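Internal ticket #5521
Category: modeling
Description: The requester needs a full-assembly model to guide mutagenesis choices. All entity lines are attached below as received. Residue total reported by intake: 299.
Assigned to: D.W.
Attached entities:
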Amino acid sequence: MNFAQNSSIQKPTPPDKGSFPLDHDSECSKPMMDYMKCLKDNQNQSRLCMEFSKLYLQCRMDNNLMAKEDMDNFGFENVKNAKIVQAPKYNPNEPIVAGLSRRNNNK
Amino acid sequence: NNNEFKDEKRKTLDEKNKTTAMYVAITIIMVLGASYAAVPLYRVFCRVTGFGGTVREADEFDIVRKRDLNRTVYPFKVTFTASTANKIPWSFKPTQSTIECVPGEPVLCFYRATNNTDTPIIGVATYNITPMKAGSYFTKIQCFCFDEQRINAHETIDMPVLFVIEPEILDDKSMKGVSDITLSYTFFKSND
């Protein structure tokens, strides 16, 4: 992969909070299975399963598998402020006509 | 008389040539010396001012990014794939095939690895994001990549990834029409 050719390709960056230690003793399997079940029930929409995410992260923190942190720092609550709309329809084959400004797309 | 004049002229010319040559030689030596001295000088400069990213404070790790989500967002579908390289004798799969999430939301997902052999194996994971330009908006808060992971014989481990799609992806015009992102993890065997 030649990064010099395309500068928009990002090199893989390390994670912000580092690496999760491995859960060898399956201490947090139950919160994990609850979360997976919630995803299955909700068509894999993760914003409806935030509580289960928090429970899993809390389990990790309690069992020393993750650095202890305030739940608010992750930003779970921010999602409630967002207005969720449908993705705008985008036709990649829409031609560009010289002189005509694109009507639907924003400036 | 004419010869004497010529001799004198030649003498002053020689002297001038000698002084010029001396000046040039001194300049060369000074420049050479400066280029050798630059190496330790730069080191001191960087240490004092912290330029060049050589100095990093410990609390940068804890600075929490506040993402402003008082806006309209649309959901992205993140697909998960997993692969192993070098014929590692373990199975490595994502526990969920896709997740629908919105930018700014911290999303939890899992990968499951099973060691089918009788000996512990040490592996390292790396990831890739497609489409490429979405990679700069994909922030991993915590994952299991780039660190050696050891899985014991006949052990199954669930490895989580906590990630966020940055809300700035919605403002980027080159990302218009992108609503599918694929996260691929590859496990390599560590040679230790």
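Resolution: model delivered.
Comment from assignee: Chain B touches chain A through 59 residues (CB under 8 Å).
Ticket closed.
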